[in-house]
Amino acid sequence: MGYPHALTRVEGRVAIRNGAWEVTAAGAASYSNQNLFAVRTNVTNAEKTIFKKIIDGEIPADIVYQDEHCLAFNDIAPQAPIHVLVIPKKEIEHLDAISAEDAFLAAHLFTVIQKVTRDLGVNHSYRLISNCGAAAGQTVPHLHFHILAGRNLQWPPG
Ligand code: AMP
């Protein structure tokens, strides 16, 4: 069964049961909110973030560390001699979207940040930033931590 085209007018019988709905069209085809969920899923895939594309190997990145749960790669527009991004492979929009079920992942991200800074030789002297929301400067809606190091960093930030 296909999906109704966005501009197609579908006429038929509508049944609503337990919060689910279904339209049985005159020609016997039927459409339900299950179908629309599938359409929505496709739209979500079409709108993958740049970081999800890196996770899925669809675009390249200069990866410095990865494991089953997270990925660290050089920022494409470095703001310091060392500028590495650490991200979870799980799609979490930002800090505010971390939930209790992410407890292991959240702790693991900090372990990875320590490992990456040690491997880069900047442990004990780096800045960690996570911009949460557009007004705070977040441009990619996938949780990430910026590790900045290799120069004197000013405070307060802009
Ligand atoms: P934010 O502005 O906090 O959301 O940070 C997003 C960061 O992602 C910026 O520092 C960008 O330079 C960086 N960035 C965007 N696209 C890429 C990419 N393809 N590879 C590496 N870093 C990227």
Task: Please describe the topology of this protein.
Elements: E1 12-17, E2 20-25, E3 30-32, H1 33-46, H2 50-55, E4 63-66, E5 70-74, E6 82-88, H3 103-119, E7 127-129, E8 145-149
Antiparallel strand pairs: 1-2, 2-3, 4-5, 5-6, 6-8, 7-8
Adenosine monophosphate is lined by residues 50, 61, 73, 75-77, 85, 131, 137-140.
CA-atom Rg in angstroms: 22 Å
Q: Regions with pLDDT < 50 over 5+ consecutive residues?
A: 1-8, 35-44
In DSSP terms (H or I, runs of 4 or more residues), the helix count works out at: 3
Number of domains: 2
Structural class: alpha+beta
Kindly report how far apart the N and C termini lie. Answer: 53 Å
Assigned CATH architecture of the largest domain: 2-Layer Sandwich
Bound molecules: adenosine monophosphate
Main pleated-sheet profile: 5 strands, antiparallel
In CATH, what is the class of the largest domain?
A: Alpha Beta
- By CATH's scheme, which homologous superfamily of the largest domain applies? HIT-like
Biggest β-sheet: strands ordered side by side in the sheet: 4-5-6-8-7
- Mean pLDDT over the full residue set: 83
Order of helices and strands: EEEHHEEEHEE
Binned, the helix content reads 10-25%
Strand content: 15-25%
CATH topology-level name of the largest domain: HIT family, subunit A
List keywords for this structure.
binds adenosine monophosphate, three-stranded antiparallel beta sheet, 25% strand, 2 domains, HIT family, subunit A, single chain, globular, 158 residues, disordered N terminus, five-stranded antiparallel beta sheet, alpha+beta, 3 helices
